[in-house]
């Protein structure tokens, strides 16, 4: 059985209300990225498939932007749009879902499986300068494409006049 090399698990980084502590604490962010790095290393070096049962790696993503939009592309092979949930809350774009195990092999003996099944989640801090009502997500051929329009500069920053106290 594989053990983590760190004293903090990803479950410990989530508060009771579901907010990710890593978004507020740079050390927790480093911890999360180190966990992801080691997970990628172990998954790449032939970890026995039995140890991977019930887990799925976070999807590979590409994040781009221009003057008007953020563009997020996530690879989700073997999933459909019904298996994926996209939310935006408090400046964070969250991609989550579940890849369910196929039950067609019930009458067959499975000798080797390297396919991963289970829940996954990826959180991307985009900031508060997003037009939440205009975020668009489309799913085609195992690729999720999200377009998040940026708010106008004047909507992002409000200057407050400082007056002399009486």
From TrEMBL:
Occurrences of domain SHSP (ranges): 52-165
Source superkingdom: Bacteria
A Pfam family per the record: HSP20
Family note: Belongs to the small heat shock protein (HSP20) family.
The protein's name in its UniProt record: SHSP domain-containing protein
């Amino acid at each position: 059985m594989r053990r983590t090399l760190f004293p903090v698990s990803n479950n410990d980084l989530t508060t009771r209300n579901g907010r990710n502590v890593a978004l507020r604490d740079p050390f927790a962010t480093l911890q999360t990225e180190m966990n992801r790095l080691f997970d990628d290393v172990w998954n790449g070096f032939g970890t026995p498939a039995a140890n991977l049962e019930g887990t799925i790696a976070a999807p590979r993503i590409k994040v781009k932007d221009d003057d008007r939009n953020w563009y997020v592309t996530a690879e989700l092979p073997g999933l459909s749009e019904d298996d994926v949930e996209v939310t935006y809350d408090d400046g964070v774009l969250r991609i989550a879902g579940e890849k369910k195990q196929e039950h067609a092999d019930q009458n067959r003996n499975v000798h080797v499986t390297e396919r991963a099944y289970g829940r996954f989640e990826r959180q991307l801090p985009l900031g508060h300068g997003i037009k939440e009502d205009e975020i668009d997500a489309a799913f085609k051929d195992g690729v999720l494409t999200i377009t998040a329009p940026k708010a106008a500069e004047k909507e992002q920053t409000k200057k407050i006049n400082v007056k002399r106290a009486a």
